[in-house]
Design brief:
It contains 10 helices and 8 strands. It has 245 residues and is of the alpha/beta class. It has one domain: TIM Barrel, CATH 3.20.20. Bound molecules: pyridoxine-5'-phosphate.
Amino acid sequence: MIRLGVNIDHIATLRQARYRGAPTAATPEPDPLTAAQVCLEAGAHSLTVHLREDRRHIQDDDVLKIAGRFRTQLNLEMAATPAMLDFALKVRPAEVCLVPENRAEVTTEGGLDAHGQAQILRPILQKLREAGILVSLFIDPDAKQIEASISLQAPVVELHTGRFADAGEKDRPNELNRLIQAAKQAHQKQIQVNAGHGLRLSNLSSLLSVPHLHTLNIGHSLVSHALTVGLKASVSAFLQAMQKS
Ligand code: PXP
């Protein structure tokens, strides 16, 4: 069975939109820790949080709290920098996914250049490995990047599914084929294959033709869907509270 990892960054995005830096006696909501618990209770297998350099959504304290309760299910996404390495070694999540980071991007736009950045990545991978953390590299489904991941002895790769998700009908078979070939290449070398980015209810069935998938990490669309299906219950709760007065 393919495992579901829920990326809860956007729970924090919503909280930051209202409570960023504003002093208040109110309890900031929504709370990523509560969301983490709900996701796991609903059957999700793991949680992903991306602690970005600009702290635009998830904050250090969120990661510490979530790790405190759900360390064995936590996948920390982070840039391969000395500061983030120190933080990861302090938090010791079960997994770390190394991603490229660019301050100006809206979301992680492309995969990590595991080939071009091997010198930077090698010692970081080694330190995380020594700490007992499972490390994955978020890479494009590209033979050169898989080769580099093999040579870095990465135990896991997460294939970037963004191009597949954004492709129109004409290009989608080609993007799917790139994912299939990359998954086969990684699996042949005993590398665990995860995938994520841009996955939605409407493109999942097509993606499932990719072999050897271990975990799919899904964030934006899953949280968006939660808002849509949860609005009815929320409106009812507020109407009920108003009737009481
Ligand atoms: N996996 C990685 C490595 C990511 O950077 C992201 C986006 O933060 C996701 C999965 C989830 O992507 P989406 O929010 O589009 O589902």
